[in-house]
Amino acid sequence: MKIIKTNIIPARQSFAKAKGDHVLNYEAICVFTAIGFFLDQDTYYKDEVCLRAGTINTIDESGYLIKSEPWFQWHHSPRDISFNDALTEFTVLFESIIDKQVVDKKVILPLSGGLDSRTQAAALNYLNKDVESYSYSFENGYNEARISKQIADACNFPYESFKIPRGYLWNCIEELSKINQCYAEFTHARQMAVVDTLKPKGDMFLLGHWGDVLFDATTKQQLSIEEEVNLIIKKIAKPGGLQLANALWKSWDLEDNFEWYLRDRVKSLLSQIHIKNSSAKIRAFKSMYWAPRWTTANLSVFESVHPISLPYYDNKMCEFICSLPEEYLADRRLQIAYIQKRNKKLSEIVWQEQKPFNLNNFNLNKSPYNLPYRISNKLYRILNNIMGKPYVQRNWELQFLGKANNDNLKTHIYNDSFYTLVEKQIVDGIYQSFKEEDNVQFSHPLSMLLTLSLWQKNNS
Predict the structure, then answer these.
(1) pTM of the full predicted structure?
(2) Which residue has the higher pLDDT, 397 or 95?
(3) Which of 23, 150, 202, 442 has the most crowded CB, counting CB atoms within 10 A?
(4) Residue 203 sits in which domain range?
């Protein structure tokens, strides 16, 4: 027998065999295409399961899951504590976690224009750790590297910026499909474009994933169970994803209706979380099912080069979150206060989500204060389009737009082998809708078809 204890938010997916026939789990695959990740224990096959987060699992000699019991339950137990005391506790906890994870290793720190990596930068700088930092921006996209370099300079970190080039995916898609086992679609793994360059930079990655979920409110209203389900489905269902899932559901002749099925699954899982506060409850749902099956899936790209550590994934951090009043978590209050406390220069740098404002004045990001920036930014995009350099905002634009990208894409999704899984009529419908109707709406289902085609190729 083997015992596997999974973390509250696992940094990697663990799988086991389950009783039943080795047949495709068509219902699970439909959910995957709709939301971009497998839900709960689902995998491609009915006789294989992913171990749940926060559980102790008994697995026999043949690899079958015999028993799974939770060792942690998400809860909402806010203490009577002042904000300043909560900030002090967060400061001690966050820095102790990073100190323990890093020790004396040389850190590779990905920087962005947001708060999660900036909070880590403040801690690493205060703890005087050895850091190599980097960031990447889209070709013809927003220059996120400008913000990242300012963060690195404020902390005296060595820094390098990269441009993510158009069509990089096609040179590494086979490798990526084996690294993440096709448990996440491919256009979000930008790190694949630079991963080889990062190999000599340090000993480990320190990653800021999931801080934005833990340290913010998911809703500021108290909702009914039906309203909570509606909100979750609105957050997880991707544009065009339901359309593809419905088409596959019908083509595979599954019972009832896909959207009813998805709603029932979400409602059942949500009902098992015994938290009254809607914001805390939805955060728990996302941390139990979204983080381990979507966010975690592409962490394997980083891990293929160096070990990874994730301060926000730490068990003690999750337990700490459960003990705080929601108003301290809302609007990123704790992270902002921590950055202002540890490094004032960092708080004065533009916050990308609130550009052109920073952590000290982002409350001005409203009319009329933000009108000059909005006007100039729109003019910049118009001029770029006139000059034949359309402004890139999304991952898929680098991979699916243009003739070379289109040719590579069609090579993967238009082949007789793939049609044994997905009917050609469905492939045609999604592809043509992307080309002729709305490429934003149909970029996700097109990416899911690409993912399924690689999975089918690797497992045929």
Answers:
(1) 0.93
(2) 95
(3) 442
(4) 83-215+297-364
